[in-house]
Amino acid sequence: MEFRHLRYFVAVAEELNFRRAAERLHIAQPPLSAQIKALEDELGARLFERTTRAVHLTAAGEALLGHARSLLGAAAMAEQHVRNADQGLVGTLRIALLAPAATSRLAKIFRRYRQKFPGIQLNLHELTSTTQIQRLRADEIDIGLLRPPVVFPELEARFVEESSMILALPIGHRLARARRIRWIDFHNEPLVLIHPSLQHAYYDFFFAECEKAGAKPVVGQYANDVQSKMWLISAGLGIAPTTRTIAQTKRPGLTFRELPSALPKVKTVLAWKRSNHSPALRHFLECFSEPE
């Protein structure tokens, strides 16, 4: 049974007139009659009672009509869904990001994307830069907001923004009360850091400045993500440099101070796989390119 036969059958069943049904289908009447006859032969049942004056559905025709309409409706929906997916209007976009990248600017971009493409489900993950790169290469996410460098040739990256570094401390810490912080003040100071396997080169410039001043801070605690790191600092387990964007979110037990001298700003980039031709991804990149 072909969908073409079902369309012909429904047209005749609704018009109850072969001539009008043929006009509606933009075909000649004899081929229409032949196709209906072929459908009846295939099913082994008469679908219409024909007289010189009228056409009526048989019991078999009545039984087929509802199913035919449902099948044609489902086929039309499937066809439309495929077209929408091809145009990036429906589907899922898998996005990973660092906690510091969740800025007000990013929120505006997400809002703009959702308004333009409400049929796209955003599947969000908070992941470290290292994990994001691994999952991008494995096609487990579509796009990531992470720290450079992105050195793999199959990945493409685009600069998003940069943020200066600042010192996070627990309220009441001696350096929180100091009039002026010097690099030597970090000597033997416990630090709370993201584990090196999860954060590449993030703290290198901080340690370089400490070393030049003769200071040797110690690692007091490792954390697996930024939120855990901030909580551990607020609990008094150490201090740490972080990005200024993190300081914009108020957290109980935390305070922030300027570092003794400016460190290179921390960049955030968008990264995606060059071979990913998802229309939903393309639209997301276009939203990032639009002026604020």
- Tally the beta strands: 12
CATH 2nd-level architecture of the largest domain = 3-Layer(aba) Sandwich
The global form is: rod-shaped
Please write the CATH class name of the largest domain. Alpha Beta
Strand arrangement across the biggest beta sheet: 4-3-5-12-6
**pLDDT averaged over residues:** 90
- Helix and strand element order: HHHEEHEHEHEEEHEHEHEHEEH
Share of residues in helices? 40-55%
Quote the distance from N terminus to C terminus: 55 Å
Q: Could you name the CATH topology of the largest domain?
A: D-Maltodextrin-Binding Protein, domain 2
Count of individual domains: 3
Task: Please count the helical segments.
Answer: 11
Which class of secondary structure composition applies to the elements? alpha/beta
State the low-pLDDT regions, or none.
Answer: none
Major β-sheet annotation: 5 strands, mixed
| Share of β-strand residues | 15-25%
Can you characterise this structure?
- By secondary structure, the protein is of the alpha/beta class.
- It folds into three domains: 3-86, Orthogonal Bundle (Arc Repressor Mutant, subunit A); 91-162 and 268-289, Periplasmic binding protein-like II (D-Maltodextrin-Binding Protein, domain 2, 3-Layer(aba) Sandwich); 165-264, D-Maltodextrin-Binding Protein, domain 2 (3-Layer(aba) Sandwich), CATH 3.40.190.
- It is 42% helix and 23% strand.
- It has helices spanning 3-15, 18-25, 29-43, 59-86, 104-116, 129-137, 174-177, 204-213, 226-234, 244-247, 279-289; strands spanning 48-50, 55-57, 91-97, 120-126, 143-146, 155-163, 165-170, 190-194, 218-223, 240-243, 254-257, 266-273.
- The strands form four sheets. The chain has a five-stranded mixed β-sheet with strand order 4-3-5-12-6, sandwiched between helices.
- It is rod-shaped and about 105 Å long.
- The model has no long low-confidence stretch (mean pLDDT 90).
